[in-house]
Amino acid sequence: MTAPCDTTAPLRRLLVTGVGGAPGLDLAACLASAGHTVMGTDSNPLAPGLIIPGISSRVVARADSPDYKDDLRSLLTGFRPDAIISGVERELPLLITMQGELDAAGIRTWLPSPATATTTLDKALFHQAVTAAGIPTPLTALPDALSTLPASDGLVVKPRRGQGSKDVHFCTTHEQAAVLCELVTDPIVQQRITGQEFSADCLVDRDGHASVVLRRRLLVHGGMSMVASTFQHEQATRLVKATLTAIGATGPCDVQGFLTTGHPDPVVITEVNHRLAAGFRLSEAAGADLVGQTLRGLFGLPVDHHRLAYRPDVHLTKYVAELSTQPRTHPVRSHP
């Protein structure tokens, strides 16, 4: 069991997007359990987060649909939230373009700069940014330069702007990688890193100070950590903080990397997601007030980094459960 969310914060009306995935779903449930009035949204009418007890929900257009902004504006007019918390990285650029009207409506957000959003969404640009800062990261190339990568440790072909484990393929030769590049939309090729994969739940305050909670990803399914444990590692913490500084991160972030085997660098950083991670409940169970301090920062209050200290060797196991066996009454809506 994970620790309950903080119930001492002022109660708010909160719109949480992307409740079809674990970060948004768990966050919406956590906030509702703390007494906040929560609306969850997702573009998939079958998203489990749309039927979480205790929240209202709406199906909205995908972030790449021309209807996205109109759908969001309609929700804001009807629900009148105090703040929006995004659980979907690909919608960040659109929310950033709406920043002015959201501010004018009194709706709080905690969004990265346009440059930071672009960097975290594009693995090629992310590689350039962290490499320029001297942070160890997998060697990376576009398909026309994949021959520059050593194949001795294996190669990974993945979407340049993808998320999770969708369309991620492993291979051992340049020839195999070339074929996979024909099958993956807008691909990128990376050196394969082996070792213990980890995630870091991070909160970067508006002055750039960061707290970091490290989690070993012990069992991963579909890109999501199903079994994990907290740990402490000075070098990993230092490199995570350096990565956040290098890309100009702010607010809640998820940094991923490896404690390596057979690599000259003992810690390698692989990516950053500018949102709460799917395993944030483990950090909360280990003592870090991640959601509570995120809400403080979201509403312009100082983040208390002392409240983000955590205990190592706390374990979390996620599992598939039945959320509902009743007829589904949520309206199904399709979008281009």
3D structure, described in words:
The protein is α+β, with helices and mostly antiparallel strands and 336 residues long. The protein folds into three domains: 100 residues, Rossmann fold; 53 residues, 2-Layer Sandwich (Dna Ligase, domain 1), CATH 3.30.1490; 124 residues, 2-Layer Sandwich (D-amino Acid Aminotransferase, Chain A, domain 1). The chain has ten helices and 14 strands. The strands form three sheets. The chain has a six-stranded antiparallel β-sheet with strand order 13-12-9-10-11-14. Strand 1, helix 1 and strand 2 form a beta-alpha-beta unit. The radius of gyration is 20 Å and the shape is globular. The protein starts with 12 loop residues before the first strand and ends in a 19-residue tail after the last strand. The C terminus is likely disordered.
Shape: globular
Strand arrangement within the widest β-sheet reads 13-12-9-10-11-14
CATH architecture assignment name of the largest domain: 2-Layer Sandwich
**How many distinct folded domains?**
3
CATH superfamily of the largest domain: ATP-grasp fold, B domain
User: Structural class per helix/strand content?
Assistant: alpha+beta
User: How much is the radius of gyration in Å?
Assistant: 20 Å
Q: Proportion of β residues?
A: 15-25%
Q: Distance between termini?
A: 40 Å
Largest sheet: 6 strands, antiparallel
Would you count the extended β strands for me? 14
The run of helices and strands is EHEEHEHHHHEEEHEEEEHEEHHE
The CATH class of the largest domain turns out to be: Alpha Beta
Q: Tally the helices.
A: 10
Determine the fraction of residues in helical runs and give it as a percent range: 25-40%
